[in-house]
């Protein structure tokens, strides 16, 4: 692309006056859009040239597409201490860096990664610290320094597989290191999502601007992780803290994109110097763990006993060389602020090079002379914990008591405090209310270790502060994240991680935890649907004007069924306190619509629709790497809704409308599962959960509404609840009769809602799932499923009574327990009888 003259660039920017009108860099801060000479920087001139033809409507549609993508895919993060996820805040404009400037950044990041690797090797060698090394207190004072790992050589020869560094551009235009990330660097997955989002905002623009692609970096990262294993085709897993992690979505994104199993500590077992992942096929050896769990939480036996996230015995397996961990536990010891002031000297000592990317000037108060200097500069520095990633506080802004407390802390425990120069960060344009405004930002860049050296991601992600205050210490976490575009001088080749050979038609091994959550996701969804059908029947009875007093036997049976399922908790059902001399008279029985509303909305009732949906969402939250965006959206947005007004709170029409809307959602989810999921082990377990819960519901509803002496209203309600009304009417010319209704609901093998249909499908799934032993004998789950299917195939509708139904219900419950015992063992000591000789 031919370089623009300054006049041409100015004309282009003026052509976008609807954006830049009133745009002015902050005083004393560098700006990414406007250079020191007042002219647009070349990279932004290229963007302005490409965006010139776009109308405000085009931009609005692009921005709307980006926001829809974030919402539909469910891109999210969680702030520490909060229970709910937040939508990922993506800026509508990228950060632009040209190829020449990026080369300097990349070279500096590689040098810093090499320095961190050399420093970690020295710290963990077990040898006395050489002359010129950082003070011991600046290292061992860190909670990330793990003494049990000293002297343990890292499998694969590296402590770091992934390194990240936070950068900021100072007023002089130079890039400065704000912090190092060596523990378990986060954000690479969000950088990938940011790129996808902006590709929707500006379709085709990245190719025209020759934006360097991210796929080669992720391919190098995957190859580097695989190189740490000893086998020719090592199994690499991503170890996650679980769905309550602040960045769980990102972890699921990376696992899906790189084709890695996402495993939690409970999925793994360490034994005989190796680590295995529990799967429905038995124990399978895992060679490399890319961890996102803090190092001290990796093993409750050797490290922090409070951990519930790690794997007991993991450090022993690491010492034996049976597993490689990236990054090596203990690698976080060099990312502390306490070491930043020593980095320039360490670079000269360990690499014999000058530090290319300078740090923010840092005073570690563990040294007497430095401590006094920091105290003398109290009003010009920001102070923070030397070993904690918390926020800084400006000495000049402290009141007298806080200032005295800080001075006392520095003098008594100076090793825990650092002072840092207050750096004014560069600003970047942000879209606000139809125009551009400058906001300060920091840039996170990643480097992956590979057999061929360090590979730097051509981009990264930026965090942008909401406030215009450009001091790095006040930026915090920022409120926006921006994609980073590195503009190449030459056309950029298309690169993808999609494999070009080795076609496979089998999925990887399914971890037991994922299997457990899939099974229960199916159960909770089906349980919620069954209760919703009972709610609809109750609301419809009220809406049709049927009597809802004690004389209406059908309504009473439906209410009793709702109570038996735990969907309703009434005060009148509580046991009376025998110590009371008198008991207050019970209130009159609530109308059917009130019972229906409670069964729909009451979160305190364990069997209510609202409670079952909450449990379904919780199970789905553990499956972000396995659910499609459409499936996740349907489940996460599932809700019984709320009445539109106070008048509609108990209105049967409102309850019925909400129940019917929910049934449509359940049908959409069932259709998605049936039509879009491949017939893998995960799909079978999800479907088995649905079938077991549907079978239990059919037994309970039939027992309540189709017993001997059932009225026509009872049978009619049963047909509604099991969704067989139309089938019955087309099959029989007479009204509902007990035996035909029971046959249709329980024994018709062609009815997808009958009990026998569920039993046959469960038996088929059990037979298709992996076996632990190849001795030709049926496993307990197959025996139970076969017995139930056989009994149902020879049953007669006329002979079915309450005892028979109770027996079948107990058989289903036993089968569910057997499935759990066979496929979902949990806990550090839980082991299935897998053949040790067959562990693969």
List the main descriptive attributes of the protein structure presented here.
DUF403; alpha+beta; ATP-dep_Glu-Cys_Ligase-2; 840 residues; DUF403 domain-containing protein; CP_ATPgrasp_2; 21 strands; elongated
Describe the protein:
With 840 residues, the chain is an alpha+beta fold. Helix 5 crosses helix 12. The strands form five sheets. Strands 3, 4, 5, 17, 18, 19, 20 and 21 form an eight-stranded mixed β-sheet that branches. The protein folds into three domains: 70-360 and 423-487, no CATH class; 510-570 and 589-677, no CATH class; 679-826, no CATH class. It contains 27 helices and 21 strands. Helices cover 42% and strands 12% of the residues. The radius of gyration is 32 Å and the shape is elongated. Residues 582-591 have a biased composition (Low complexity). It comes from Salinarimonas ramus. This is DUF403 domain-containing protein. Residues 570-591 are annotated as: Disordered. Residues 570-579 have a biased composition (Acidic residues).
